[in-house]
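This section describes the prediction task in plain terms. A model, or a person checking by hand, is given the sequence of a single protein chain and must write out its three-dimensional structure as a string of tokens. No templates, partner chains or ligands are provided. The sample shown here is typical of the held-out split.
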Amino acid sequence: MISTCAYLGVSTGLTSCTSYKFVPSQVVDNKLVILKNDFEESSFVMVKTDQLTEAIFVSKTGDKYLAVLTKCTHKGCEVRPAANILKCPCHGSEFDFEGKVLEGPAEERLRLFHVETDDEKIYIG
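The expected answer:
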């Protein structure tokens, strides 16, 4: 489990810390495969692959799963979970879990992956 903290105010110095875990994956038919059981303790996980330098952030809302690349579209830094957003530690861009820009300087959304599921697995392609 890894924790990240984001400052919530310039003058207050308060922080919001978010813990997340990296889960194992495998590649099957050119799709990254993780288990639905990985979401028992959290509504999101991180996945690292040999094919990408940045991790993939996978979130769950109800029965819907989303996967985005954690590479900021502004200057390429790796965004991190912070409360209910993804935040770039380099220049402060913020994204929702679908990769949409909430706060610049980034102007383009994060790369969104196609996701399919079955009873036990999540397929990211």
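For orientation: The radius of gyration is 14 Å.
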